[in-house]
């Protein structure tokens, strides 16, 4: 007679150290369809800490709301089960199989309705979340067994037809009650029915003792089978849960390995900067997302006399120079700027939301900072770089922009190096 949201609650509430914990990943999987249309968008530059904090807050809210919705739906089914049981009870009364007065029948029906209304108030107000078992499984099972025993006690020979409700109630708690709790409930069922039978036999009200004994034996066998089956099902579910957790752990490991592989593919090993292929992918994405009236800055950077440094001081010294530039450039640029090694001693910078003045100031700041670099253990007379700059607007082609920046870089090197040249400058001047 009592329907318990055991299975759904079991999927959401997992036993751990004697307490029940929320499995938010299960809920997000169930709610993914609702969240797919959400206006929330995540930028690749979002910090991990911020996103984790956001998901913790959203997870808590969605977890509570989803649990309450699931439990209220299950409670509605439980109330429907009670309604059907009351209909059968009144049918037994009008057919003469229920030995009670009309007034006591009405009072009993009213008490059943009040008990369900009280449970609904607990679920609707959220007070059930204060308990270790928010589904209140054992409470609902015991309440159902109590009403079922009251029904059985006043039936005549027809009580055998209503014994199935005992099994139905225990089945509803099969997936959520612990083994001990389910065993306690099964013992309560058997001793309650046996007590009713012995009471009637003692007062000489038992019309067919053999039938009553047969009913008690059948009930005992069914209860034993139910307890053993519950243990088997719960053990199987535990193994499946462990396998699911192990699979999730393997998936997390694989995702971490994939991220590492992506980093290796996207990153230049020597400088730690993005490589050319990854830069082109990021720059194309930025261009496609540009708004009208917004400009981006693009700069090609070449380290002056880098081949001479390699020839005179060796390739290890050249690697040290490249690493020094990567550190200086990273410190001079904003978080949203994209810096990459374009090839050899060439680097490329994409500066979003930038005009000509800001791009020039950025490149000059970088050029001056690099000339002030002193390399420990390396006697290099002078470090410098040349920069070719251009601006990107909506509809520009990335290859054309890179060609303009390359032409400006050629002019900067032709005019003496250690300078910045812009594609928008008048060449003739």
Automatic annotation (TrEMBL):
<feature type="transmembrane region" description="Helical">
    <location>
        <begin position="185"/>
        <end position="204"/>
    </location>
</feature>
<dbReference type="Pfam" id="PF00990">
    <property type="entry name" value="GGDEF"/>
</dbReference>
<keyword id="KW-1133">Transmembrane helix</keyword>
<feature type="domain" description="GGDEF">
    <location>
        <begin position="294"/>
        <end position="425"/>
    </location>
</feature>
<feature type="transmembrane region" description="Helical">
    <location>
        <begin position="105"/>
        <end position="124"/>
    </location>
</feature>
<dbReference type="InterPro" id="IPR050469">
    <property type="entry name" value="Diguanylate_Cyclase"/>
</dbReference>
<dbReference type="GO" id="GO:0052621">
    <property type="term" value="F:diguanylate cyclase activity"/>
</dbReference>
<feature type="transmembrane region" description="Helical">
    <location>
        <begin position="210"/>
        <end position="233"/>
    </location>
</feature>
<dbReference type="GO" id="GO:0005886">
    <property type="term" value="C:plasma membrane"/>
</dbReference>
<dbReference type="GO" id="GO:1902201">
    <property type="term" value="P:negative regulation of bacterial-type flagellum-dependent cell motility"/>
</dbReference>
<keyword id="KW-0812">Transmembrane</keyword>
<keyword id="KW-0472">Membrane</keyword>
<protein>
    <recommendedName>
        <fullName>diguanylate cyclase</fullName>
        <ecNumber>2.7.7.65</ecNumber>
    </recommendedName>
</protein>
<dbReference type="InterPro" id="IPR043128">
    <property type="entry name" value="Rev_trsase/Diguanyl_cyclase"/>
</dbReference>
<feature type="transmembrane region" description="Helical">
    <location>
        <begin position="75"/>
        <end position="93"/>
    </location>
</feature>
<dbReference type="InterPro" id="IPR029787">
    <property type="entry name" value="Nucleotide_cyclase"/>
</dbReference>
<dbReference type="GO" id="GO:0043709">
    <property type="term" value="P:cell adhesion involved in single-species biofilm formation"/>
</dbReference>
<feature type="transmembrane region" description="Helical">
    <location>
        <begin position="159"/>
        <end position="178"/>
    </location>
</feature>
<dbReference type="InterPro" id="IPR000160">
    <property type="entry name" value="GGDEF_dom"/>
</dbReference>
